[in-house]
Amino acid sequence: MTSNLFDGARRVRPRLVLAFGNPSRGDDALGPLLIRDLEVRQAAGELEQVDLLTDFQLQIEHTLDLQGRALVVFVDAVASGAEPFSFDSLLPESDVGYTTHAMTPGELLRVYQQVTQESAPQARMLAIRGYDFDLGSPLSTAAGRNLAKATNHLLTMLEQ
């Protein structure tokens, strides 16, 4: 028997794209901007099997958003790493910091398993390379190019 974390019925699509970042901090807006692009496509009738969610940072409450998913793609901007992006599998992490306001995707997957006593959904991390994270900065040109490439990659994967 599977547990149900929700009171009331809601339609849960099998795939979730969960992006996080601060739109006021330059390239940290990459995740929310990707969600905005995908929302436009959904409004046009695409991505019918995908739910979209964005927030400033991952919180323990996002555990509820993982239930009923076959795939979760976490999206975030990174200050170092592969260019234009990396797209890696995620596993639950065992060291969960309950006293922090922010969690890693791996920590969130682990909490999901602890709460539901179920295996975590398949998860991927789309880490888009950013360069300028200063408060009030616009999206950098290079990060904008990386966003376009990451969005195209993600769309190809979601359409399969």
Description:
The chain is an alpha/beta fold. The chain has a single domain (15-159), classed as 3-Layer(aba) Sandwich (Rossmann fold). Helices cover 31% and strands 21% of the residues. A 5-stranded mixed β-sheet has the order 2-1-3-5-4, with helices on one face. Helix 1 (30-43) crosses helix 4 (141-159). It is globular and about 45 Å long. The chain starts with 14 loop residues before the first strand and ends with a helix. The model is unreliable at 1-8 (pLDDT under 50).
Query: How far is the first residue's CA from the last residue's CA?
Result: 30 Å
Largest sheet: 5 strands, mixed
Question: Which CATH architecture?
Answer: 3-Layer(aba) Sandwich
Mean pLDDT: 90
Poorly predicted runs are 1-8
Number of strands: 5
CA gyration radius, whole angstroms: 16 Å
CATH fold-level assignment: Rossmann fold
Itemize the secondary structure elements and their pairings:
Layout (H helix, E strand, L loop, with lengths): L14 E6 L9 H14 L6 E6 L7 H4 L4 E8 L6 E5 L15 H12 L5 E8 L11 H19 L1
Structure summary:
The protein has 160 residues and is an alpha/beta fold. Helix content is 31%, strand content 21%. It has a single domain (15-159), classed as 3-Layer(aba) Sandwich (Rossmann fold).
Question: What are the salient characteristics of this protein?
Answer:
single chain; 160 residues; alpha/beta; Rossmann fold; five-stranded mixed sheet
